[in-house]
UniProtKB/TrEMBL annotation:
This is 2-methylcitrate dehydratase. The keyword Lyase applies. It is an enzyme of class 4 (lyase). Belongs to the PrpD family. InterPro entries: 2-Methylcitrate_Dehydratase, MmgE/PrpD_sf, MmgE/PrpD_sf_1, MmgE/PrpD_sf_2, MmgE_PrpD, MmgE_PrpD_C, MmgE_PrpD_N. Its EC number is 4.2.1.79. Residues 284-474 form the MmgE/PrpD C-terminal domain. SUPFAM superfamilies: 2-methylcitrate dehydratase PrpD. Pfam families: MmgE_PrpD_C, MmgE_PrpD_N. Keywords: Lyase. Residues 20-262 form the MmgE/PrpD N-terminal domain. GO terms for molecular function: 2-methylcitrate dehydratase activity.
């Protein structure tokens, strides 16, 4: 890996475009290096994972709205929309499928200086591949790039500290991945990366206060913008430049300012793209920093039972955790909505106080039942929920930011104080499903997750057909086989939505 130091440059400076970060990203995308077997295997896992969560979300309102918007744009030379037959305009298929993937907060993640869900690259790159008739090997190459670029931007450049949403790293990564997929030249990819970043930079208000369905739409929008950016630059159009380093660019005005330097690691020429191997998926439908805490709560429920103690005997619960967990999904966010039983599902899946309380009561987590309004409104749950608080612990913050895989952790230490003063203390660094956790996800677990979430939504025969296609991805010639048709009776349950403009 090469560490690239990036900072603002004055317009009057001699700053050749070959030194721009966007150009260096494009060079990585255009590198014809082969994809290693381990990366290919994980790409297959993540395509399965995205299909699983899309099956679970197919009748939810935001997904239904996105799908119906996309259906207004059929195209013979197009891409597939999850759940239905036919082909549609690539950018709108990206919009529909990206929303389906993101809606339940249930697919893969990478956390470092910034947050990310790199599986959000898949809808855009796959739609571009289907539209252009590319094969499985082409798709693998494109996805390896998408993951590589997003992971390395996340390693080196924090957006959330400046209240910029993490999808600002997704637009450039998806554009780069499409560039690899299509075999575009460096200059075209460079322009596409710049356009994609320029059009996908937004504030983090989408994840603050009362969180709305835009949280699901945001990465779909970034993917859609990436597809459109590539289309424009292939037609000869350019982008603002230098997009990151410019005097009025992203670093100068949206991030840490003209005096700050960022270090972005990128593969050297000829170096394999292995970034996806550092990412991890979710066993539970909740923000990733809640994954280990759900597993910890399940374990502590057993501890309570062993001591013949009920949750009614609890006086307080304090979760000692990282800066990120405390301020994003903990009481450090100072969001009263995170303590409100009438809040949206999107808000509750970003409330570790709610999540820990329900997991402690139930000893399990379910992507629908655990968020049901009647579940959130139980008086005993609300009482317990409001006894939970978080505090930042410097050691957990250090481990969160560590670059050493053996130290990096996203967990917490829980201190449950009973009404008689007794303290029950336990901690968990990594979710059970993490690659270094108690029950790491491998192909078997990805398939199991898909089978469980597709049960009753996709016929068994269609499930089998899809799994055979994706597991044979390297030799797949028709990428529309990666789409799944949902049972008619399931789609009939999708909510009625008002007519829109399109």
């Amino acid at each position: 890996m090469i560490d690239h130091v990036v900072h603002t440059r004055r317009s009057a400076e001699d700053f050749p475009y070959e030194e721009h970060l966007a150009y260096k990203v494009a060079r990585v995308a255009a590198d014809p290096v082969e994809v290693p077997e381990e990366t290919t295997e994980m790409i297959i896992n993540r395509i399965i994972d995205n299909a699983a969560v899309s099956a679970a979300s197919v009748t939810r309102r935001p997904v239904t709205v996105a799908r119906r918007q996309a259906q207004a744009h059929p195209s013979e030379r197009g891409a597939a929309i999850f759940g239905i037959p036919g082909t549609y305009s690539a950018e709108w298929a990206t919009w529909a499928n990206g929303t389906a993937v993101r809606e339940l907060d249930f697919h893969d993640t990478f956390l470092a200086e910034e947050y990310s869900h790199p599986g959000d690259n898949i809808p855009a790159i796959l739609a571009a591949a289907q539209t252009t008739g590319k094969n499985g090997r082409d798709l693998i190459r494109g996805l390896a790039t998408g993951y590589e670029i997003q992971v390395n931007l996340v390693r080196g450049m924090s957006l959330h500290r400046h209240k910029i949403d993490h999808v600002a790293h997704l637009g450039p990564s998806a554009a780069a991945g499409i560039g690899t997929l299509l075999g575009l030249d460096v200059d075209t990819i460079y322009q596409a990366v710049g356009q994609a970043l320029h059009t996908t930079t937004a504030t983090r208000q989408s994840r603050k206060g009362q969180i709305s369905s835009w949280k699901a739409f945001a990465p779909a929008f970034a993917g859609k913008m990436a597809v459109e950016a590539v289309d424009r630059t292939m037609r000869g159009e350019g982008a603002p430049a230098p997009i990151w380093e410019g005097e009025d660019g992203v670093i100068a005005w949206l991030l840490a300012g003209p005096e700050h330097e960022y270090t972005i690691p990128l593969p050297a020429e000829g170096e394999e793209k292995r970034g996806i191997l550092d990412t991890f998926t979710k066993e539970h439908s909740a923000e990733y920093q809640a994954q280990a805490l759900i597993d910890l709560a399940r374990r502590m429920k057993a501890t309570l039972a062993d001591k013949d103690v009920s949750t009614a005997d609890i006086d307080s619960i304090v979760l000692h955790t990282s800066h990120h967990t405390h301020y994003v999904i903990g009481t450090g966010a100072n969001d009263p909505q995170k303590m409100d039983p009438t809040s949206s599902r999107e808000t509750l899946d970003h409330s570790i106080m709610y999540i820990f309380a329900v997991a402690l009561e139930d000893g399990k987590w379910h992507h629908v039942d655990s968020y049901a309004p009647e579940r959130a409104g139980r008086p005993e749950t609300v009482e317990l929920w409001h006894k939970v608080s978080t505090v930042e612990d410097e050691e957990w913050t250090r481990r969160y930011l560590s670059t050493d895989p053996a130290e990096k952790a996203f967990g917490a230490r829980a201190v449950i104080t009973l009404k008689d003063g007794t303290e029950l203390v336990d901690e968990l660094a990594l979710a059970d499903a993490h690659p270094l956790g108690a029950r790491p996800f491998a192909r078997e677990q990805y398939i199991q997750k898909f089978r469980e979430l597709a049960d009753g939504v996709v016929s068994p025969e269609e499930q089998d057909r899809f799994l055979a296609a994706v597991e044979g991805l390297e030799n797949l010639t028709d990428l529309t086989e990666l789409n799944i048709t949902v049972l008619d009776e399931v789609l009939a349950e999708a909510p009625d939505t008002p007519e829109g403009l399109l």
